């Protein structure tokens, strides 16, 4: 049974316990295979009428959606006022769905939207369309360079009640993988154990389906497969954020629906043919950058100084850079509103490529631009780092053609294109 129907039963539980005599509806529920003979005998074995009804209400949420519909139908004859309330689509029903949606995001570990969020509407809608058509065992993959806003895009796409409740039955689980060391199996196993812990607390996962944590990758993979074949989780979605290794994909390839964010689409090589790639290459549009800066400063877009548009142009709309500058604007909001000189300071910083100053003041250096660039370079293989350092030979922002690098590196066109990619 999905979360919304389960919560409707929970909301009306006391009214149902007060009014219902189970002997009037048990035969109907047996005829529709909602209850087994053993379950019926256990219900009848309770000492009081109310305890019998409570026992029935404890069993129903563990059944499928059809069980809810049959229960409502069984109530229509003897208890029409209860069936009407269970079927109601009014404000109370809306509140139940809202609570169910929020609980799903909270229990699944989905990140909250940033305080000054700008939704990239077209891209968000594209991702949602792919998620709507996602099949079990298949992947939607958001890939693009560090700072392109993949994680925020994934979170924004899932901030949708209809998608989470109706498509994924309220079962969405976010695992922030990051740049783990796959040579140490314990790092990967830790993430798999974290997911199993979240799944085991799903209110509709039967106790017999709950499994213990495993001590090996293979054992954990089999345990996760068992979870995602349960009625409660069969349509669930797993989000693997910031995947940097194909070993992560292989470990979590358990037959469920999966959304991946990654810098490199090659990590998906083991599931080729079961993936839908969504390139996240475009930066913010000028209007989106201005909207974010205006929110951070607390003014209307029309009140932003001319420097704001120049900052967008110099940043090339890269979401992470705009967000970092926006965070500094927010940290100095009062001064920014009074003193136009601070806008010139950020403009000058970008013009001089002094990226060390572009970071969230309240965070460490690793959370700034240099930290992000360093992370990307450090993750390159040693031979690739040598190629990267060769770019110091060129003027900034020049368009380097493959033919130039063929000469510099003494390699053919196809090798050069692979290295550049």
Automatic annotation (TrEMBL):
Gene Ontology biological process terms from the UniProt entry: apoptotic process; regulation of apoptotic process
Signal peptide residues on this chain, from the entry's feature table: none
Q: Where is the CARD domain?
A: 1-90
Q: Which GO terms describe its cellular component?
A: cytosol
- Keyword terms, alphabetized: Apoptosis, Repeat
One Pfam family here:
CARD
Keyword Repeat among record annotations: yes
Statement: the UniProt record of this protein carries the keyword Repeat: yes
This entry's Gene Ontology molecular function terms read: ADP binding
Q: What is this protein called?
A: CARD domain-containing protein
Native source organism of the sequence: Cryptotermes secundus
